[in-house]
Design goal:
With 122 residues, this protein is α+β, with helices and mostly antiparallel strands. 38% of the residues lie in helices and 25% in strands. Strands 1, 2, 3, 4, 5 and 6 form a 6-stranded mixed beta sheet that branches. The termini are far apart.
Length: 122
């Protein structure tokens, strides 16, 4: 039996409180996710999973989740660092505010377990 090809996904985790309590415009929040996606792609461009992900641009799979606040986003950052999961924590300047975290593309089964407690971004 042939081995199943793993689904390569990219997880994007955005702070929900930027919209809900801090009053950021939707476009500004989306820009944070775009910045983080671009940065993580640049940082891990030569990675085998990133290259696989980029080899089929019309079928990229992103999962956008919501962290309720800065503490939860930072806690995730630390957990991913401890687990050696490559990612980029985007910190908006000059405000120095962590706004978004993006994992490099990975097989879904390799990273989903770290993100179970986060809900889809709405």
């Amino acid at each position: 039996m042939a081995a199943e090809i793993p689904v390569i996904v990219q997880y994007v985790i955005v702070r929900g409180d930027l919209l809900k309590t801090m009053g950021w415009p939707v476009g500004a929040v989306i820009a944070q996710a775009c910045h983080a996606c671009t940065a993580v792609t640049h940082l891990f461009y030569n990675d085998q999973h990133t290259q696989k992900y980029l080899s089929d641009l019309d079928n990229m799979h992103k999962i956008v989740l919501e962290a309720p606040d800065e503490k939860k986003l930072n806690d995730l950052h630390l957990k991913l660092e401890e687990s050696k999961i490559d990612h980029k924590l985007w910190i908006e300047q000059p405000e120095n505010i962590p706004t978004c975290l993006v994992c490099k593309p990975y097989p879904k089964d390799d990273v989903a377990k770290f993100l179970k407690k986060f809900k889809l971004f709405k």
